[in-house]
Automatic annotation (TrEMBL):
Matches recorded under Pfam families: FUR
Protein name: Transcriptional repressor
Gene Ontology MF terms: DNA-binding transcription factor activity; transcription cis-regulatory region binding; zinc ion binding
Family: Belongs to the Fur family.
UniProt record, GO biological process: negative regulation of DNA-templated transcription; regulation of secondary metabolite biosynthetic process
Organism of derivation: Hymenobacter sediminicola
Lineage of source species: Bacteria, Pseudomonadati, Bacteroidota, Cytophagia, Cytophagales
């Protein structure tokens, strides 16, 4: 699912504002890469972003897409997410606190939010601590398989 339910492109002003808030210049390349990242469903790879942007910017290289995505990660506009097998980098434009479910059958990464689970994790670390380490945030990566709708546990 894209970050815009009707898959309509975000306005240029919206994209410029997001880049400015992150302290990045709104170059044409960054604008089309950010737009693609926001519109592509799921957690796209740099290659998927590149395939989408070359329609608008044919001279844009895959290396430029990687550099832009890395600058988005450094600026807090997106997060890097490993695939289920950890072999490729995928990107998540949703930087809010959430976890990921990795389906090994479909290679899909599904966002998962559960405030009760978050509270349990926070309470666990408050009670047990980690010697010489202070957690600032956390994100679980749970690997499994999606069940067919008739196999779903109620």
């Amino acid at each position: 699912m894209s970050h815009f339910p009707d898959h309509s492109p975000p306005s240029a002003g919206h994209l410029r504002d997001r880049l400015a808030q992150a302290g990045l210049r709104a170059t044409r390349q960054r604008l089309v890469i950010l737009e693609s990242l926001l519109l592509l469903p799921g957690h796209p790879t740099a290659e998927q972003v590149h395939r989408r942007v070359v329609g608008q910017e044919p001279s844009l290289s895959l290396g430029t897409v990687y550099k832009a995505l890395d600058s988005f990660v450094a600026a807090g506009l997106t997060r890097r997410v490993a695939s289920a097998e950890g072999s490729c980098r995928r990107y998540d434009a949703d930087c809010s606190a959430h976890h990921h479910l990795f389906c090994t059958d479909t290679q899909e990464i599904i966002d998962f939010r559960d405030p009760q689970l978050d509270t349990l994790i926070q309470e666990f670390f408050a009670a047990h601590g980690l010697q010489g380490f202070q957690p600032q945030s956390f994100s679980l990566h749970i690997i499994g398989n999606k069940l067919a709708s008739d196999e779903t546990i109620k």
